[in-house]
Design goal:
This protein is of the alpha+beta class and 84 residues long. It has two helices and four strands, in the order βαββαβ.
Length: 84
């Protein structure tokens, strides 16, 4: 994923059912140092913070879940604004 201006971290917002969040956290924790799982945001999406160099790996992992029982959709990827 190439960005014109490199940022240190990116926020990935995903749409995920509340009951699947705990399963996502287990999977993400198994892949150490790829993502920092945060919480549901005011916009209703779940926020994940990812170091700039691992955005592609994070997206690969999240998109691989489409073939599982966890239904997850990447909604947007934005430069991290410093708000956790």
């Amino acid at each position: 994923m190439k960005k014109e201006k490199l940022h240190l971290e990116y926020d990935i917002y995903i749409d995920i059912a509340k009951e699947d969040i705990h399963l996502l956290i287990y999977l993400v924790e198994a892949e150490a140092h790829i993502m920092n799982v945060r919480k549901k945001q005011e916009n209703g999406y779940f926020k994940i913070i990812v170091p700039a160099g691992l955005v592609d790996e994070a997206l690969t992992l999240l998109n691989s879940l489409k073939n599982s029982d966890i239904k997850v959709e990447v909604v947007s990827i934005e430069p991290h604004n410093g708000i956790i």
